[in-house]
């Protein structure tokens, strides 16, 4: 693979598994240095295995000290930031009538507050590099899905961030985009975030999709990394579904 991102640096949250892991590895395979951020040091080590350009950083993105810790580490290690990928996310069934205030706050903290505060901490280095912010949202945020109201609402909010920030940061040379995956085969479907019924429902979606299958993390990561390439320099403020046609039917 051509090392088209050699000398660039990407910060990827949620890099311990799934789309975040695939994204960190894809950046490294294109020659970029990568700060891989996640809660589990062991999972991050697995992400970095065989790719010395990936540096793991164990951090909870909801911790108030995390934004400065993440950005300072990237700058001290690599000297700059060219791409900031918000891959950390929370997914859990939330049937209406069962949602507590604490659960609401946790969804907001992970899926919206953390990207907002980390983006603010990264503004200066991103402006210096003419960098790109890439939000990983979800097709569920563009269409309704029963019992996923908190997840979908926060992902829709992330897409609004994308459109608002794109206009707000354009004068600083910073581009902002969203990649909105549909049903993707990742460990989040297997880590007790969803019960067996919900997992089966997601897999049944493939019967309704024009492409008739669940996607892979690598297919989503390909788009994320390409948005950071120089040939994407005229693209900002877009929400790109990578969902097998889910948002089109």
Automatic annotation (TrEMBL):
Q: Which Pfam families match?
A: adh_short_C2
Membrane-spanning regions, if any?
A: none
- Residues in Ketoreductase domain copies: 8-187
- Spell out the InterPro entries in the cross-references: KR_dom, NAD(P)-bd_dom_sf, Sc_DH/Rdtase_CS, SDR_fam
The protein's matches in SUPFAM superfamilies, at most eight in alphabetical order, are given as: NAD(P)-binding Rossmann-fold domains (SSF51735)
Regarding protein family, the annotation reads: Belongs to the short-chain dehydrogenases/reductases (SDR) family.
Write down what this protein is called: SDR family oxidoreductase
Lineage, please?
Bacteria, Bacillati, Actinomycetota, Actinomycetes, Kitasatosporales
């Amino acid at each position: 693979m051509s090392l088209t991102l050699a000398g660039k640096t990407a910060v990827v949250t949620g890099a311990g598994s799934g789309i975040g892991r695939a994204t960190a590895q894809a950046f490294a395979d294109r020659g970029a240095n990568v700060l891989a951020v996640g809660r589990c040091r062991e999972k991050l080590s697995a992400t970095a295995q065989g790719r010395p350009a990936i540096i793991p950083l164990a951090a909870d993105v909801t911790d108030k000290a995390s934004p400065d810790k993440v950005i300072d580490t990237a700058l001290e290690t690599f000297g700059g930031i060219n791409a900031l990928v918000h891959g950390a996310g929370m997914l859990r069934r939330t049937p209406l009538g069962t949602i507590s205030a604490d659960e609401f706050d946790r969804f907001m903290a992970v899926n919206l507050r953390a990207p907002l505060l980390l983006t603010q901490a990264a503004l200066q280095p991103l402006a210096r590099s003419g960098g790109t912010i890439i939000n990983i949202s979800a097709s569920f945020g563009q269409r309704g899905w029963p019992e996923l109201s908190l997840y979908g609402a926060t992902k829709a909010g992330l897409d609004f961030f994308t459109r608002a920030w794109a206009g707000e940061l354009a004068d600083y040379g910073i581009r902002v985009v969203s990649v909105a995956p549909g049903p993707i085969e990742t460990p989040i479907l297997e880590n007790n975030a969803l019960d067996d019924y919900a997992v089966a429902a997601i897999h049944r979606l493939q019967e309704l999709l024009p492409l008739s299958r669940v996607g892979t993390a690598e297919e989503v990561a390909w788009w994320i990394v390409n948005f950071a390439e120089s040939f994407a320099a005229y693209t900002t403020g877009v929400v790109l579904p990578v969902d097998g046609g889910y948002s089109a039917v």
